[in-house]
Design brief:
binds magnesium ion; globular; Rossmann fold; binds guanosine-5'-triphosphate; alpha/beta; 200 residues
């Protein structure tokens, strides 16, 4: 899959307010600061398409980016950021919940996990709820440039073992770096395959 055009298509607080044109959607979620917005920029090869920040809690709305006039990348607010008020945390969780449970166009949710750390309880709880809700998902390990290949392999192996305590099969998973572009082609190929599946 080649991305020839990536345009910001709108921000919304609820599903009904998303851009009106219905196209396949691929959304990105994960703990605050894990690198969702940076990954979208890396995939699109546009530095400042999605807003990023070194401080957690940057993305607070559902942001649609229209790709090649034929599908959307969707940047979602992070979860689990301790430093916002309880009310704001609930508000962000409701925004995500409304989108994830309501969008019929969502072909795949990418759940981002920091490749340097053990998968955390908050991630596992989130992933397990996706199973109950029937939301198709895969995992993306982020920030792989921050460690060596051996450490990365070991960490992914540990996380796979944890996931297999809850799931009979592992979901598809990818390793990426928004800094180096590592993993870009595999993710774009995967997206292409899912789009082709609905068209065939
Ligand atoms: P929220 O919108 O706050 O939930 O965060 P987010 O998940 O969208 O994270 P964002 O993309 O804003 O990135 C958070 C920080 O991590 C920024 O300082 C990024 O530059 C940094 N970052 C993201 N991806 C990578 C990566 O692959 N490698 C490195 N070294 N830094 C990264
Ligand atoms: Mg963000």
């Amino acid at each position: 899959m080649k991305i020839s055009q990536a345009i910001f298509a709108g921000s919304s607080k609820k599903l009904d307010d998303r851009p009106k044109q219905r196209l396949p959607e691929f959304a990105f979620i994960g703990r605050s600061n894990v690198g969702k917005s940076s990954l979208i920029n890396m995939l699109c090869n546009v530095g400042k398409l999605a807003h990023t920040s070194s401080k957690p809690g940057k993305t607070r709305l559902i942001n649609h980016f229209m790709i090649n006039e034929s599908w959307y990348l969707v940047d979602l607010p992070g979860y689990g950021y301790a430093k916002v008020s309880k009310k704001e945390r609930e508000n962000l969780a409701n925004i995500n919940h409304g989108y994830l449970n309501g969008s019929k166009e969502l072909l795949n949710l990418f759940v981002l996990i920091d490749s340097r750390h053990d998968i955390q309880t908050i991630d596992l709880n989130f992933i397990n709820k996706l199973g109950e809700a029937g939301v198709p998902f895969s995992i993306i390990y982020t920030k792989t440039d921050k460690q060596g290949v051996n450490a990365l392999d070991r960490q992914i192996e540990r996380n796979n073992t944890t996931l297999l305590q809850y799931w009979e099969e592992l979901p598809p998973f990818f390793a990426t770096s928004a800094e180096t572009g590592f993993g870009r082609d595999k993710i774009l190929d995967y997206i292409e395959k899912l789009i082709n599946n609905i068209n065939s």
